[in-house]
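Technical note accompanying the year-one report. For the benefit of new consortium partners, we illustrate the data format agreed upon in the data management plan: each record pairs a sequence with a C-alpha cell string. No post-processing was applied to the example shown here.
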Amino acid sequence: MTNEKANGSVTTKTDKLPAMNLESLEKLAGVGLEKVTMDDLPTPRLKLLQTNSEEVDESNDKYVKGAKPGLILNTASNSVYGKDGINIVVCGYEKQWPEWRERGSGPKSAPVNVYTPQNRPTDAVRGDDGKFRLSNGNYIEETANFYVLILGDGVIPEPAILSMSKTGLKAARSWAYSLKNEFIQNPTTKKLFLAPSWYRIYNVSSFKDKNDKGTWFGYKIEKGDFLNDENIFDTATAFNESFRKGKVTAKYEEEGSNEQSGDIPF
C-alpha cells in the first residue's frame, strides 16, 4: 500500500509488506542513488509567509495552494504547515553574513560571498536603512541558520534549514540562549552537562508583530517535551554529524531567500 504526497513523492508503508520482500528491499537500500549528492537536491528551507509573499498570491506563478500569511512553507516540498506550526528538533546552528547586491541592481542570484563571523568584512558601515554597506555598494546581512528535523505523527523526520535575519534575530538569539542552557543532571554523580541541541522538541509557529515601519509575521518559538524516540534521536545525531562535516550547508538561491520570510523589508 502506498501513500502519495502532495509533492509527488510516494512513501511505502512497510508494515504491509511481506517479511521476505522487506528483507530484500533492505539489502538494496540506496541502490540506484549512489551518484546523487547534496548538490543535486533542493535545499529544504522553512519560510514564514508574509502578506507580500509570492506564494500567497493566486495570480503569481509561484503561488502555493493553501499558502496564507503567517503560515510556514517548506520551499522544497511546497508543504504548508497550519496555524499550530510545526514541531522540530535543532541538530545544528551557525551564524553567517551573506553579501547581497541591492534589489533591482541586477538579476536575482546567489549571494556574492558568504562570510563567517570570523572573516566578515570589518569595513562595513551601517546605513540609514539599517544595512551594513560595503564600499562596493553591496551589503552584508547577519543570518542565524538552524538545521532542524521536522517531526510529525507517523511520518519520517524531514531535515530543513530555518534561517532568521533582520527582525528575526531577536527570536534567534532567544532560541540559541535556550539551547545553550538546557542541562542534564546525572542522577548518580549529580554532575550537570549541556544537553545536545536535539534533546528537546520545540514548536515553531508565528505571531503578528509591528514597529513604526509596518507589520509582519515573526517566528514564535516555544519549548516542548523532551525527545524520547530513540530512532528520531539517532536520525538527529546523524544529521548533526553531516552538518559538522560540512555535508549539509545553507544555500542561498536568491536575494532575500535567507531571511525568515524573504519578504520583510525591514
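Partners are asked to follow this layout when depositing records. The CA atoms of residues 86 and 220 lie 11 Å apart.
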